[in-house]
Amino acid sequence: MSRFHNEKDYLHGSSECTGVLLVNLGTPDAPTTKALRRYLAEFLSDPRVVEIPRVLWLMILYGAVLPRRPAKSAALYRSIWQEGGSPLMVYSKQQQHALQKEMQIRFKGEVKIELAMRYGNPSIKAGLERLQQQGARRLLVFPLYPQYSAATTATSYDAVFKVMNTWRWVPELRFVGQYHDHPAYIEALVKSVKAHWKAQPRGDLLLMSFHGVPKRNLMLGDPYHCQCHKTGRLLAERLGLKDNEWRVTFQSRFGKAEWLQPYTDKTLEALPAEGIKNVDVVCPGFTVDCLETLEEIAAENCENFKQAGG
Length: 310
Fold this sequence. Notes:
Layout: E1 17-27, H1 33-44, H2 54-80, H3 87-107, E2 111-120, H4 124-133, E3 136-143, H5 150-164, E4 172-175, H6 183-199, E5 205-211, H7 215-219, H8 224-239, E6 246-251, H9 264-270, E7 279-282, H10 291-307
Parallel strand pairs: 1-2, 1-3, 3-4, 5-6, 5-7
């Protein structure tokens, strides 16, 4: 038996199209302990995500993390869960549908858009197979991470390669590596911040909070830290901010190792003592609202900032 899947559905002369696979990180299927355990097991088992000796980490993961963390995470997800699912899934689908509508207008059905999650559902395998069934002979894989990191962008590549390693007819393949300094991306951030300032009084400081990664990743050559700071600088320049009117920080650290600093939570707790009582927080690394923006920033860190005197 061949190791490669046959192309039984292919007919010579059949119509072809270009496929775009949007890839986001992922979300549990439900805000339950069982669903979170399954999701976290897949996510935290990825060697791109946790780069410590494999045997040691799996002992920690299954002995300490998975018995405790899922219940706590499930409670946090329940606080933001929507009728259509997790916010990340709901808003990612909205992006997919809006982009498909635009492509239909521009290219008359010659471009098909599918959504996939690196962890959980819909899987990258399922997304690729849907595009294959629609006749996609040219494929653009678009990880929805503006700033490149091995723990996000590269692992999306890994998953695509793993699937295509079993295909007999592999399509022409391209990847979006990063878009941290693309003018359209910066302009979208500018519009978002200005819309907030129009709706709410402008704060004393604009805090640009990016998802953190271990500092070790930077030392090993990951460009993520540099690209976050470039995004921050370009956004500040377009908004006409002075150096003391904005900062870049990093959130969502996990474990005891040192992560990229300054930390968002520690910064927010310290700002009132510096005389900064009103802060605007934007999260440029997240393409849609999710647990990290809605619960960690808008709820938990907002409350901590107020408790500190903000």
